């Protein structure tokens, strides 16, 4: 799942919206989570209840707004440490499950796809939504896949 967030005023606005749903910025070193970091205050912490978060990390390598946090974690944990976002497991399960069901309903096998492209947006009342736009098959062909997920509803489910 490759998602854009340019519909927000800034990466920080997008990230805060995700954090309001329970997402956390974590420090990853050699595929292991070694802590958390607040990317705005640079405060380090411990990840509580890691089982509540999806193992599918969002990698924002190169995101200018995260450069201070990236520098801080590399200073504390070494050059291989990275800042990534984890979202609540129930949100990811609903997203990936919903996408798979939509493909299957069209007579498609989800394993035949290498990428789903989507964008985050604000809905009525400020609700955070993910608008899926297309699916890219392993052979490179693109297919429209118009889906809309209300992340606030998924977070409460």
Provide the residue-averaged pLDDT. 94
Q: Determine Rg (CA atoms, Å).
A: 16 Å
Portion in strands: 25-35%
**Residue share in helices?**
25-40%
Number of domains: 2
Structure summary, number of beta strands: 9
- Give the helix tally: 4
The strand line-up of the biggest sheet is 4-3-2-6-5
The class by helix and strand makeup works out as: alpha+beta
Order of helices and strands: EHEEEEHEHEEEH
Could you name the ranges where pLDDT drops below 50 across 5 or more consecutive residues? none
Largest sheet: 5 strands, antiparallel
Termini gap: 21 Å
Q: Tell me, briefly, the overall form.
A: globular
Short description:
This protein is of the alpha+beta class. It has four helices and nine strands.
Q: Please, could you describe this protein's structure?
A:
This protein is α+β, with helices and mostly antiparallel strands. It folds into 2 domains: 24-86, no CATH class; 89-156, no CATH class. Helix content is 28%, strand content 34%. The chain contains 4 helices and 9 strands. The strands form 2 sheets. It has a 5-stranded antiparallel β-sheet. A 4-stranded mixed β-sheet has the order 1-7-8-9. A hairpin with a 2-residue loop joins strand 2 and strand 3 (32-37). The longest helix has 17 residues, at 89-105.
């Amino acid at each position: 799942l490759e998602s854009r967030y340019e519909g927000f005023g800034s990466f920080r606005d997008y990230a805060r919206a995700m954090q309001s749903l329970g997402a956390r910025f974590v420090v990853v070193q050699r595929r292991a989570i070694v802590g958390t970091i607040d990317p705005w205050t640079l405060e380090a912490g411990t990840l509580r209840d890691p089982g509540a978060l999806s193992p599918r990390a969002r990698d924002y390598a190169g995101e200018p707004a995260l450069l201070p946090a990236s520098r801080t974690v590399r200073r504390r944990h070494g050059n291989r440490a990275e800042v990534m976002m984890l979202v609540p497991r129930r949100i990811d399960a609903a997203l990936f499950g919903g996408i798979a069901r939509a493909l299957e309903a069209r007579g498609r096998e989800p394993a035949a796809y290498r990428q789903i492209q989507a964008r985050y947006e604000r809905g009525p009342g400020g609700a955070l939504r993910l608008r899926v736009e297309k699916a890219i098959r392993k052979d490179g062909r693109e297919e429209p896949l118009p889906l809309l997920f209300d992340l606030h509803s998924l977070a409460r489910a």
